[in-house]
Amino acid sequence: AGQCENEPIDRPIGFADLFPLDKDGLQFATDFALKDLTRQFGDEPPPKQEDVASVVADPSAWLFTAGGAVVHFTVYSIANFSRGEFDVAIPYAAMKNYLRPDAAPLAGLRR
User: Using CA atoms, how far apart are residues 38 and 53, in angstroms rounded to an integer?
Assistant: First the structure.
């Protein structure tokens, strides 16, 4: 069960508090990340979709801020060492349709 809108949260919000690990949400996050990473890679070939999907599916790769989530791609997860690490910020508003039904208040959104 999720938190009530007026119930205080006495711990950090985590992946499972906001997202079901369902196909639609993971596909949305993968597509969003791939688009942003392709922009970040510039003239270089974009990362492979399956590599991006693998990181997106790992709850430990997600960080949460007041404005949204950040998917952190470590060295070697999508590119060689010389490319370094990458972060993709996904605003809560963009994820609104993929959040758990009881997560909108946690993310500061109204359904």
Answer: 14
Residues contacting residue 12 through CB under 8 Å, at least 6 positions apart: 64
CA atoms within 13 A on the CB side of 30: 20
What predicted TM-score, i.e. pTM, was given to this entire model?
Answer: 0.78
DSSP 74-107: -TTTSS-GGG--EEEEEEHHHHGGGS-TTTTTTT
The sign of the CA dihedral 67, 69, 74, 77 is: negative
73 three-state secondary structure:
strand
| CA 80/CA 89 separation, integer angstroms | 21
Selection from 29, 6, 9, 17 nearest residue 102 by Cα: 17
Query: What's the pLDDT tens digit per position in 89-105?
Result: 999 889 888 888 777 66
C-alpha span between 19 and 24 (Å, rounded): 11
Q: In whole angstroms, give the CA distance from residue 31 to residue 46.
A: 12
Residue-level length of the chain? 111
